[in-house]
Design a protein that fits this description.
The mean pLDDT is 95. Helix 3 packs parallel to helix 6 (140-152). A hairpin with a 2-residue loop joins strand 1 and strand 2. With 237 residues, this protein is an alpha/beta fold. Helix content is 36%, strand content 27%. It has a six-stranded mixed sheet with strand order 6-7-8-3-9-10, with helices on both faces. The chain is globular and about 45 Å long. It has one domain (29-43, 72-207, 214-235): P-loop containing nucleotide triphosphate hydrolases (Rossmann fold, 3-Layer(aba) Sandwich), CATH 3.40.50.300. It starts with a strand and ends with a helix. Bound molecules: adenosine-5'-triphosphate and magnesium ion (MG).
Amino acid sequence: MENNILKISNLSCNYGQIIALEDISLEINRGEIVSLIGANGVGKTTLLRTISALSKEKSGKILFCGVDITKYDSDKRVRMGIAQVPEGRGLFTILSVEENLKLGAYCRKDDKIIEDLDYVYEKFPILREKKDDYAGTLSGGQQQMIAVGRALMSKPKLLLLDELSMGLAPIVVEEIFNVITTLRDMGTTIFLVEQNAFLALSISDRAYVLENGRVAISGKSEDMLSDTRVKEAYLGV
Ligand SMILES: Nc1ncnc2c1ncn2[C@@H]1O[C@H](COP(=O)(O)OP(=O)(O)OP(=O)(O)O)[C@@H](O)[C@H]1O
Ligand SMILES: [Mg+2]
């Protein structure tokens, strides 16, 4: 069995005349947390959306668990085990917390959904307390927990996280990222996008830096924390 769960080769993506991604190649191994960092507008969200087939690539190839999924639609990719927590969360604010969570299991036909709902409530106990409340009435951090919980309801092998920490208090960020680390320890592979480079490098095993739609730097996260280029451009030290 190949060690990598995701392998992207020579991926490019345009929005009309705008080149969003150019010749991206990267690999994510089973059981890793890999982070993707970079400034505003360098293509981080586009890359995650392309992995979920929410954006269409111009060229390139995506392998998931050794299968070429480049032509697969987003539903099929979810069923294979790719889940995304989108930038801005994408919750249904006038549905209850529990209804939002159950939507994450839309593509499943098994009878373990209630068990997995319990698992999400165990990870985020506040969501059990508020399960019947409208999602839109919860705090930003709690809404982010719903978004993560909803992604978990599809039983992902690979979890894609887009800017989880955005706009949240440090203590809430810590709580959510503790859960993310536990998920990795339980076997879920994680690819996370963050503008908070220090946070991303602190919790990930490896990282890629995007600049203008291209991979500019990659390596072990701990090495990047002491890399002069990364420090100057992304860590503000
Ligand atoms: N739907 C779209 N139509 C046209 N251009 C787009 C669209 N979405 C993104 N872009 C452009 O593509 C480039 C990459 O955007 P993307 O959202 O992937 O970057 P990002 O790194 O996630 O940025 P941010 O840090 O702001 O979230 C930017 O120049 C952006 O303006
Ligand atoms: Mg983005």
